[in-house]
Amino acid sequence: MKSTVFTYSVTAIAGSLLASAIVASVTSSAQAQNAEHLQSLLTNRTCQRCVLTEIDAKGADLRESFLDVADLRKSTLSGAILAFSTMYYADFRGADLSNSDLRNTFFIHSDLIQANLSGTNARNSRWKYADLTDANLQNANLIDIELVHAKLNRADLSNASLRNASLYGADLTGANLKGADLYRADLTNAIVTNVDLSQANLCRATMPDGKISMQGCGMK
Q1: Largest CA-CA distance found in the chain, in angstroms, rounded
Q2: Fewest Cβ atoms nearer than 10 Å: which of 18, 65, 75, 162?
Q3: What is the pLDDT of residues 196-209, one digit of tens each?
Q4: Distance set, CA 90 to CA 13, 107, 131 (Å)
């Protein structure tokens, strides 16, 4: 009986050690791949279909980068320069892009759920069909941006500048637009369920029903 128990214990321990070794090997391999992809991005400013999860690239100059289908979940890119970059179908869930330079970027069909984009400058960008659910866009410069059919459910857009922005067909359900500047913005067919627009500047904005708002024009 003791022999059987001893054999079982040894086998179990051996199996556990083997599993740990496999996990360590996979983790090490993933980290090495991550480092390789990061180096490629920093050197060549291109890393399509690569894995860059949880990287720290604060303040990096990555302008004109190609990051199509890249995985950048929970990455730290605060203060980074990504102007004129293309990021089709990229995954930035939970990433920190606060105070970054995102002017003239293409985030088409990209995933930015719970991303921190507070204070970012994304002027004249194209973020069509992007998913910005629960994203933080406080004080962001979103002038002339295209957010056509974007998901902005519960997004924090307080004090953001959306002047001349195109929000055609966007879903703004539960979004915070307190203090937001939507001067001449296009909200045609946008979903604004549970959205308080009373404290937003809607001067000459096209509302979901196609009517032109004059709310806030008296302040001009």
Answers
A1: 90
A2: 18
A3: 999 999 999 999 99
A4: 41, 7, 11
